[in-house]
Design brief:
With 153 residues, the chain is of the alpha+beta class. 39% of the residues lie in helices and 22% in strands. Strand 7 and strand 8 form a beta hairpin. The relative contact order is 0.23.
């Protein structure tokens, strides 16, 4: 029998809001030894995910795009707009300023194989699990959950 996401997900995951101070989210991630948190609004609707990767910008900072000067004009060698989001993340003070705002999700009824495939293809470590209507976060499934399940078989 194929296992479903519902059978291995962590139910009622810890969530944060866009207004949550970044320092508070960092503390939760570190203390709970988790790699990320769903970001929800007051009604529980998923807005994004904040992960260790998003937080790394706080430490690393951002390098400006390479450019050359010709006759007092700046010519960028890479698209400078690409750096706007990185700068925003590096300077952000709230979860909303730093989170990834296009979360990839899965439903509880989907198979573990589907969850593993999505994580592998999208190179992500966690998937928020949505209710049947796709409106509310009811759980989270991580790569670790899948590996532990594989070890039990």
């Amino acid at each position: 029998m194929t296992k479903t996401v519902a059978q291995i997900m962590t139910q009622n995951p810890i969530t944060v809001t866009p207004q949550t101070p970044l320092s508070e989210a960092i503390k939760v991630i570190a203390e709970k030894k988790i790699s990320g948190l769903p970001v929800v609004d007051e009604s529980g609707k998923l807005l994004g995910v904040i992960s260790e990767t998003d937080l790394m910008w706080q430490e690393t900072g951002v390098e400006p795009p390479p450019y050359i000067m010709i006759l007092d004009s700046v010519i960028y060698l890479q698209n400078p707009a690409r750096y706007d989001k990185e700068i925003h993340k590096a300077l952000g003070q709230t979860v909303g300023e730093v989170m990834s705002d296009k979360p990839i999700t899965i439903k509880a009824t989907q198979s573990l194989k589907e969850a593993a495939y999505v994580m592998h293809e999208k190179k992500i470590r966690r998937l928020p699990v949505m209710d049947e209507n796709g409106t509310k976060v009811i759980g989270i499934v991580t790569q670790g959950d899948i590996i532990r399940t594989m070890a039990q078989e």
